[in-house]
Automatic annotation (TrEMBL):
Highest taxon above the source species: Bacteria
InterPro entries attached to this UniProt entry: Cupin_1, Germin_Mn-BS, RmlC-like_jellyroll, RmlC_Cupin_sf, Seed_Storage-Functional
Domain Cupin type-1 per the UniProt entry, residue ranges: 43-190
Protein name (database record): Oxalate decarboxylase
Pfam families listed in its UniProt record: Cupin_1
Annotated source species: Sphingomonas rubra
UniProt-listed Gene3D superfamilies: Jelly Rolls (2.60.120.10)
Region annotation Disordered: where it falls in the sequence: 1-40
Record-annotated membrane-spanning stretches: none
PANTHER family assigned to the protein according to its UniProt record, in alphabetical order: OS03G0336100 PROTEIN-RELATED, RMLC-LIKE CUPINS SUPERFAMILY PROTEIN
Record GO terms (molecular function): manganese ion binding
Amino acid sequence: MDDLDTQASGDAAVRHDASEPGGKPSFAMTDGGGADPTHQHLFHLAGAAPSRFDGGDLRGAVADNWSVLKGQQGSVYLARLAPGGVREPHWHPSAWEMNFVVSGQVRWSLVGPGGTGDAFEGKAGDLVFAPQGHFHYFENTSDTEDLVVLIVFNTSVAEPDDDIGLVESLSAIPPDVLGALFGVPADTFKAVPKNRDRVVIASKRKESANG
C-alpha cells in the first residue's frame, strides 16, 4: 500500500491530497468506495464516504456497512486530521482501540484508572494502544502535513455508539458542580457553551482564526 497517497479502486485511482494549512479539510476520491459488490471480504476503506468535521474526516468499516463484520467483534476506521486537527478527548465504554500511524506526526495523551497517565509524540509506523474505558485523545503536531491514523476496535458497532466525548460530558454538568470539582468559582465555567453535539475532530486553527 502506497501510504494511502494513491490507491487503486478498480481501474480508478483514489487520491489523497493534504489540506492547505488552515483550509477546509478535503479527501479527494473517486466513486466505488465501501464494501465491494463482488467480493464480500473486501472493503475499499480509503474510498468510503467520509464524515467531515472542522479538523479532518473519518471513514469506517463496521457491521452496518460491511455485513461480513456482523458478529465478529471488529471494526476499523481511517482518521485524517489536517494541520491543527485534534481528536476530541473521549473514551469507549466497551472496546479497546489499536491505532497505527500511517503518515504524519502525532501527540497522544491517555488517562487510566488510579490517576495513571501517559503523554508522548509519535510518527509514521508507530502503534498506539488505548485500553477499554481509558480516556484519550490525539492531535496533529505538523504545521503542513496531514495526520492519517488507522484505528481498529474490538467491536463491530459504529464508533458513535461506543464513544463518550469530553464536550458532551462537560455540557451535562452544571457550572457550580464543575467549580466545586476544580476548586474554582462557578463563574469560571459559565462561559462554556452547552453544546451536546459530538465534536469528534476539532481544529485549533479555526479557534485561532475566531480569536
